[in-house]
Amino acid sequence: MVEDAPGEDAPGEDPPRDGRAGIDAALVRRLIAAQFPRWRDLPVTPVEVDGWDNRTYRLGAELTVRLPTAEGYAPAIAKEHRWLPALAPHLPLPVPPIVARGAPGEGYPFAWSVRGWLDGEVATAERVRDMGGFARDLAAFLRALWRVDATGGPLAGAHSFYRGAPCAHYDGETRRALAALAGRSDAGIDAERAAAVWRDALDATWRGTPVWFHGDIAVNNLLVRDGALAAVIDFGTSGVGDPACDLVIAWTLFTGAAREAFAHGVGQDEGTWARARGWALWKAAICLEAALDTDPAEAAHHRRVIGEVLADHAAHAP
């Protein structure tokens, strides 16, 4: 199991990540020994794929320990402890089981979490047996999540990095990225068309009833087992608001018939899809700008996503 995807959060909006340096297996052992001595003899090992906003360690064979790397990520611990047990019974797939909540200690300044281990691998295209079936299963999960009673849930805001809020929160950042990309011939995108996608996203004002959203439906937060979707993890950016942000995977993973199956399964209106294209464009544009001079493979991925978004926008133009 992985608990959050490396680099999935937004450049320029995230807390500093230097807190990772002080988190290691020795710290986890000290925290466990001091606060949960019943587990003190269990081995502590890093997970194979770790994230930026949290460090995750296996604790024995059946548990994991999750530690936020910076202050801005710490509120997710209390949020997930409060709400994941309430959400889980209503969802068709497993989500991280909450086992215990740790307190600051041993020089570590934040609350932390002990959870049950969920077996599976991150959902790369090569690991998915039937992408259309995977798309339908994910759509069913999201529909179930959106149906859960949202009364009293945490409204979208800083704790969700403004997922679920109007994408206008990232207007300045998106326009700056598109302007920078427009000035670079190696960016390989049509910045004018991209700006039109962003304008349409801003104009598609959401007026719906707030619903639960996950906030980071990305491949590293989806686990597969035997080629099928097996679990959804990392609800750190979850909250209550506009579900458009949960549709971005339509362009980051799905293509062709699988994308159509996902779109049919989630059943959202065109305004929601317009905002979803905006969310996808925002992330891909700022990541493409950051990767152009440093990571050609990463840049190619985000360039492809932007191309898919632009093509989809053109296909749905009035």
In short, what is this structure?
The chain is of the alpha+beta class and 318 residues long.
Number of strands: 10
Average pLDDT, to the nearest integer?
A: 92
SSE arrangement, N to C: HEEEHEEEHHHEEEEHHHH
Give the helix/strand class: alpha+beta
Largest sheet: 5 strands, antiparallel
Helical run tally: 9
Shape designation:
globular
Helical percentage: 25-40%
Strand composition percent: 5-15%
Please report the distance between the alpha carbons of the first and last residues: 43 Å
Low-confidence runs of at least 5 consecutive residues = 1-19
Based on CA atoms alone, the radius of gyration comes out at 19 Å
Strand arrangement, major sheet: 1-2-3-5-4
What features would you describe in this structure?
This protein has 318 residues and is an alpha+beta fold. Helices cover 39% and strands 13% of the residues. It has helices spanning 25-35, 75-87, 131-147, 171-182, 191-203, 249-252, 256-266, 270-291, 296-315, and strands spanning 44-46, 54-59, 63-68, 98-102, 112-116, 121-122, 211-213, 222-225, 228-232, 239-241. The protein has a 5-stranded antiparallel beta sheet, with helices on both faces. A hairpin with a 7-residue loop joins strand 1 (44-46) and strand 2 (54-59). Helix 3 (131-147) packs parallel to helix 7 and helix 4 crosses helix 8.
